[in-house]
Design a protein that fits this description.
Elements (H helix, E strand, L loop, with lengths): L6 H10 L7 H21 L9 E5 L5 E3 H16 L3 E6 L6 E2 L9 E9 L10 E9 L10 H4 L6 E9 L3 E6 L4 E7 L4 E6 L10 E3 L10 H11 L7 E2 L5 H11 L1 E5 L12 H14 L3 E3 L19 E4 L1 H13 L5
Parallel strand pairs: 3-5, 11-12, 11-13
Antiparallel strand pairs: 1-2, 3-4, 5-6, 6-7, 7-8, 8-9, 9-10, 13-15, 14-15
Bound molecules: 6-O-phosphono-alpha-D-fructofuranose.
Length: about 325
């Protein structure tokens, strides 16, 4: 019987594939695993530890910060800045960039993170997640970081991943050589490789959208969803949890499409490009899926600001192509 591979062993083995790396990425991935364990422990005891509910503060988007949001942000900030790999961090919970190692002059990487996505589900015990993205810095070591270090296209990502705090806790990530999933054994607090080489099933059978948005969505999205509904649940099923990581993870395993469209009142949609759309788009690409906005690949978008939003359609290629044909039919440039 083969030995179960731990996350740490997998990370170390993966480094062996890149003999010239300095080990900073290995250390960074290890730090993310440690922070995930700390946040997971707190998420699992939130109801008992009296840290459910709102912290009384708001984040940069004037959204009420749940206590666990703040805890997760503080934890990832503390762990990542303690390492020597990270020069700066962009977080959903922080107005601006956080400069790390030597005011950002040291450290090869910058990290984008949504510390706890779907946090409005915390009080009702629905799965939530952390989403992260890692880029190499653009400015030379020794120089201060600049916007160009943070506002890189999704195609420049070195690593993308998420942690799903659900019925079991999983860490799923890619370094550009496929997608691998690790499940935590709570008895020993260790992640073990449980889902090697994850890939979207050829044909998706699930569509995930907040139906209340449809009337305000582009015609192409309305036509696509109406088409899905016409199968009357026989071939296609509607599943929407309202927690992006959870909806994405289910669709990755079972096959499907997640849609958060532009609307007449939110022309850029709701989701953030840098720490929600880009990381999941990279994972989707590596898992044989696809991710677009109203008219281009998510990974090709040139970011202009840290917290910019984007319409987001991600999942199985056959369903993305179905949506694409609806854009073409409505000659709606999006
Ligand atoms: P709505 C959570 O706030 C989130 O950012 C995603 O996790 C989720 O998919 C989406 O928003 C839900 O938004 O408008 O359907 O409640």
């Amino acid at each position: 019987m083969s030995k179960a591979i731990t996350l740490q062993e997998f990370i170390m083995d993966s480094q062996a594939e890149f003999p010239f790396v300095s080990g900073q990425l290995t250390r960074l991935l290890t730090d993310i695993g440690v922070a995930a364990k700390i946040v997971n422990h707190q998420v699992n005891r939130a109801g008992l530890a009296g840290i459910l509910g709102q912290s009384g503060s708001q984040n940069t988007h004037n959204e009420d910060q749940q206590k666990l949001d703040v805890f997760a942000d503080n934890t990832f900030m503390r762990i990542l800045t303690a390492g020597k790999s990270v020069a700066g961090i962009g977080s959903e919970e922080q107005d601006g960039y956080i400069l790390c190692h030597d005011q950002g002059k040291q450290g090869k990487y910058v990290v984008m993170i949504d510390p706890l996505d779907g946090s409005s589900n915390i009080d009702v015990n629905v799965s939530i997640g952390t989403i992260f993205s890692i880029y190499r810095r653009v400015t030379p070591l020794g120089e201060p970081l600049s916007d160009q270090d943070f506002l890189q296209k999704g195609t420049q990502q070195v690593v993308a991943g998420y942690i799903l705090y659900g019925s079991s806790t999983m860490l799923v990530y890619t370094t550009g050589s496929g997608v691998n999933g690790f499940t935590m054994d709570p008895a020993i607090g260790e992640f073990f490789l449980s889902h090697p080489r994850m890939a979207f099933p050829e044909s998706g059978m699930i569509y995930s959208i907040n139906d209340a948005l449809l009337d305000a969505s582009p015609p192409a999205v309305k036509i696509f969803i109406e088409g899905c509904k016409e199968t009357h649940g026989i071939s296609l099923k509607a599943r929407y949890i309202g927690s992006l990581v959870t909806d994405f993870h289910r669709n990755l395993i079972k096959g499907g499409i997640y849609l958060y469209p532009s609307t007449t009142y939110n022309p850029q949609g709701k989701l953030r490009l840098m720490y929600e759309c880009n990381p999941l788009a990279f994972i989707a690409q590596q898992a044989g899926g696809h991710a677009e906005d109203n008219y281009r690949e998510i990974l090709e978008i040139q970011p202009e600001s840290l917290h910019q939003r984007s319409p987001f359609y991600v999942g199985s290629v056959n369903m993305i192509q179905g949506l694409r044909s609806c854009w073409m039919a409505t000659s709606d440039p999006g």
